[in-house]
């Protein structure tokens, strides 16, 4: 069976495929001879996986009794998480369930449109795991021993920002007591979400009723949580997770020094984030949350003081529907 095929996807206005939107495209293929098909289908598929290892001695110290719920490989334990699903499937042949269809030699084109659910986790890839999406085109012929053809193309999915929830300014306040002296910081983050095209301004009103000087450091911090889904572990108390906290280095900024016994109004500018930074939710095995961390950087011997402000990283969507040519 000779088939030449293309899965062509339209480029949306934002140039990204975002949850809550539709994906439009067209499947084209050519047959070099008359062929009977049982089905021709296009599936929108999610494949997710994570894997990590832990030193056996460290892992076994968590339990009072010997570890029997997991196999040990040498001196390590391995943990794996997996989540695969078909989001939507389209059958292109207009036929009854058990009917076969004969297609003549020639060229064929089938347009398609698939909705991306809002509760779909976005694409992500780290050194521990990934969430990927594919269009899988399958040509299936009748009979048990016929050679079926499968083609696939990968695409990236981005999370939608709910601006009604995180589109407003976020205010915060914290205090620091130094013996009998007081430092107060009141601040406002311009918006509760980040994206790849807009910077964010964070302002501070500082009252320094102390004899020390300090700066305010602003960081963007991610927490990624991985969960194993070993089918042999039915008891949730043995379910394992791994959490990785990382600071987005290029988003770290500091204010000028705040003088002692002073009042100051100042701000930091956080740059747009690069496309690999996204909030990940709605996955069984990978989640990723972000926060803006504001730290009062005090001189020795005083301890620093910090506050975390949860933020969402994703894409805003215009109400205007617009698609570029298929590519």
Automatic annotation (TrEMBL):
UniProt keyword Chaperone, yes or no: no
InterPro entries cross-referenced by the UniProt entry: Arrestin-like_C (IPR014752), Arrestin-like_N (IPR011021), Arrestin_C-like (IPR011022), Arrestin_domain-protein (IPR050357), Ig_E-set (IPR014756)
The keyword Protease belongs to this UniProt entry's keyword annotation: no
GO cellular component terms, semicolon-separated: cytoplasm
BP GO annotations: protein transport
Domain of life (superkingdom): Eukaryota
Protein's name in the database: Uncharacterized protein
Lineage: Eukaryota, Metazoa, Ecdysozoa, Arthropoda, Hexapoda
Family label: Belongs to the arrestin family.
Pfam family, one: Arrestin_C
Classification via PANTHER family: ARRESTIN DOMAIN CONTAINING PROTEIN, FI21816P1
Residue stretches making up the Arrestin C-terminal-like domain: 182-315
Domain Arrestin-like N-terminal: 18-163
This protein's UniProt keywords: Sensory transduction
């Amino acid at each position: 069976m000779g088939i030449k095929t293309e899965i062509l996807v339209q480029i949306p206005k934002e140039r990204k495929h975002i949850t809550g939107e539709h994906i439009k495209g067209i499947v084209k293929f050519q047959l070099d001879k008359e062929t009977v098909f049982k089905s021709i289908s296009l599936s929108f598929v999610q494949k997710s996986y994570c894997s990590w290892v832990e030193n056996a001695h460290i892992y076994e110290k968590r339990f009072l009794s010997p570890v029997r719920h997991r196999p040990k490989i040498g001196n390590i334990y391995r943990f794996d998480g997996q989540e695969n699903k078909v989001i939507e499937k389209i059958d292109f042949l207009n036929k009854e369930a058990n009917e076969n269809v004969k297609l003549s030699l020639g060229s064929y084109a089938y347009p398609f449109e698939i909705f991306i659910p809002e509760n779909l986790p976005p694409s992500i890839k780290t050194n521990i795991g990934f969430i990927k999406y594919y269009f899988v085109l399958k040509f299936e012929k009748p009979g048990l021993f016929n050679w079926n053809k499968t083609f696939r193309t990968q695409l990236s999915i981005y999370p939608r920002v709910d601006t009604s929830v995180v589109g407003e300014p976020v205010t915060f306040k914290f205090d620091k007591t130094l013996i009998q002296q007081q430092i107060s910081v009141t601040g406002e983050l311009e918006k509760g979400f980040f994206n790849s095209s807009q910077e964010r301004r964070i302002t501070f009103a500082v009252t320094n009723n102390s004899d020390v000087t300090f700066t305010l450091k602003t960081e963007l911090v991610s927490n990624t949580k991985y969960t194993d889904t070993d089918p042999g572990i039915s008891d949730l108390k043995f379910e394992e997770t791994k959490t990785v906290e990382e600071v987005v280095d290029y988003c770290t900024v500091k204010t000028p020094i705040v003088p002692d016994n002073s009042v100051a109004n100042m701000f930091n500018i956080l740059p747009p984030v690069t496309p690999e930074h996204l909030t990940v939710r709605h996955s069984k095995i990978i989640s990723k949350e972000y926060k803006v961390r504001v730290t009062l950087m005090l001189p020795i011997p005083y301890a620093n003081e910090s506050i975390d402000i949860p933020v969402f990283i994703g894409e805003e969507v215009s109400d205007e529907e617009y698609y570029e040519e298929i590519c």
